[in-house]
Amino acid sequence: MSDQDAGQSTRSRKRPPFRRLSSDKRREEIIATAIEVFLARPEDEVSIDDLAGAAGSSRSSLYRYFDNKQELYAAVADRVASTVIERLDQVVADSPSWDLMIRLHIYFDFIEEYEGIVSGVLAVGSGRAPEAARHAAQRVRDHIVKITCATLNVKKPSRTMEMVLRSWIAGVEWAGVEWLKTREPDRADLQQILARQLGSTLIGAAPTDPQISEMLTWWVSVEPPDSPFGVLLRSVAGLVDVRMFADVARMLGHQEP
User: Fold this and answer.
1) Which keywords accompany this UniProt record (predicted)?
2) Model confidence at 23: pLDDT above 60
């Protein structure tokens, strides 16, 4: 073998083989980049060229993984929804009301982190949001209903209970989007208000739904006195002064015709 042949052989051994990213890995990188783009700019202000440029690829390369911008946005919406679901599932608390408080804290952490796209992916009533975003938002809401029922020891909610939970979730989403605009009221106070709101709404619904009534009996029995639910009950009791107590007694003594 000549010196020239040997040199060529050595260089060929030293040159690393050309490697392409796997299709799945490249797709994941594009989604991650698109999330950053949509965090900075609303979906309707972003073009496919913007996304391709941010991902360091051409339009034609991007189209190898996604048919159009809407399909990429669907993947982004699904990824963001999966992120919040995964975080909410990690909660392990000592009581139902602490469970709710911790999940509300996680939710508000999440909407702060993803503030730029929350209104398009998870906000209530965003009529201009693409269908993919609305589908992702609904997946999150359905999951919150599921984990809240598990927290409250309910295997299958009655229609009334499901309506109460979904109404509460809609209120939490709306409050979160509004809070992002001004950061008022204090976040910790708002989280407490929202947690107490669920308890008070369920108490209000209990007389019309046996399942809710039974669940509340169980809930009170497992709550420690210093829990958020215990604080709520004491707060309500503290509102009853002597004059109000007389009115409460009058109403309690009323006999239905």
Assistant:
1) DNA-binding, Transcription, Transcription regulation
2) yes
